[in-house]
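Thread amino acids onto this structure.
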């Protein structure tokens, strides 16, 4: 059996020389090479920015959404939204393991969640069985391939599969919060009421301790109330994050002009870059987890308002992210019950 590039470049059709994520089209042949694994796919968890874009473009018509998803996968060989550039992740059962695949601890029949984006994962969909409008998950019949460099987690037996999928899809966010937020920090989480936001709130509250403060900015009154009810922030504000001056004035007054040490952006719509930047103090940190972020707008916008802030791209991976996120699910009864209600 032939061995491929560990990063999957042997799968790239166009443009040749690029990596799979940046490619316009990759091969989704399910004949695996010796350092790949074949997965029998159960569910796709399409990332929030991508799913929202598809839903809006199709006016929430499930038939049209099915057609759009199938068209994307057929044209690209992967589930990469051409508008947002993002993908998501999947859960499935290992069907076949190449002899040169480096991890010898996994076995055929293991249920896994991929921890690399669908925007680089060779995927073939035979049938879309169900689209869940409420939670971004799509049940399918199909196959996928994971490269040697691909990250994954064997699903824990004490957490429902779809709950694990939902949580692991955003595992990079709370894990980055754990790294970035210190005791005593003032933290603002924009879009704190969604899946990634709730996990970030929990971790931020844990990190800031008794001397810090966690502020949540939410567009949805329902999501804002949920954060209040769960005690996941010290202050919860409702507003439109695409209006940066309004948010700046509110946070400036609330912090007596000190602004925030760390700002976490979890929103799934474009146009919130400057709200995040304006409310961050000089030499503070902005973490853009949202795939709706324009890094051109962020970089040039920060320059335009004279802000010296560290801006971090929302890398969905950091060491230990899966373990930390699943621990949150196990530690917090409220979060687990909410996620079970939404995703199971």
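Threaded sequence (344 positions):
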């Amino acid at each position: 059996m032939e061995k491929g590039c560990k990063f999957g470049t042997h799968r790239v059709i166009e443009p040749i020389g690029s990596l799979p994520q940046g490619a316009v089209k990759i091969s989704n042949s399910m004949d695996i090479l010796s350092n790949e694994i074949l997965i029998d796919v159960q569910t796709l968890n399409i990332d929030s920015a991508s799913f929202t874009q598809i839903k809006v473009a199709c006016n929430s018509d499930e038939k049209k959404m099915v057609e759009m998803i199938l068209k994307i996968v057929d044209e690209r060989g992967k589930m990469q939204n051409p508008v947002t550039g993002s993908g998501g992740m999947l859960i499935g059962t290992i069907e076949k393991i190449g002899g040169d695949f480096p991890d010898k601890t996994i076995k055929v029949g293991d249920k896994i969640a991929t921890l690399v984006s669908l925007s680089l994962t060779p995927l073939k969909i035979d049938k879309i069985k169900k689209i869940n409008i409420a939670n971004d998950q799509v049940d399918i019949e199909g196959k996928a391939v994971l490269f040697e460099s691909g990250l994954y987690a064997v699903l824990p037996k004490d957490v429902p599969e779809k709950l694990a999928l939902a949580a692991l899809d955003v595992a990079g966010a709370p894990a980055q919060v754990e790294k970035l937020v210190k005791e005593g920090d003032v933290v603002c989480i924009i879009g704190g009421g969604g899946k990634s936001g709730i996990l970030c709130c929990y971790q931020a509250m844990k990190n800031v301790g008794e001397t810090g403060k966690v502020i949540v900015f939410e567009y949805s009154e329902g999501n804002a109330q949920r954060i209040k009810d769960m005690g996941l922030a010290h202050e919860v504000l409702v507003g439109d994050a695409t209006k940066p001056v309004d948010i700046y004035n509110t946070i400036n007054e609330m912090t007596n002009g000190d602004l925030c040490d760390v700002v976490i952006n979890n929103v799934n719509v474009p146009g919130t870059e400057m709200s995040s930047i304006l409310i961050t103090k000089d030499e503070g940190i902005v973490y853009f987890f949202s795939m709706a972020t324009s890094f051109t707008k962020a970089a040039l916008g920060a320059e335009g308002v004279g802000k010296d802030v560290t801006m971090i791209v929302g890398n969905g991976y950091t060491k230990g992210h899966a373990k930390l996120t699943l621990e949150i699910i196990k530690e917090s009864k409220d979060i687990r019950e909410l996620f079970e209600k939404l995703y199971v």
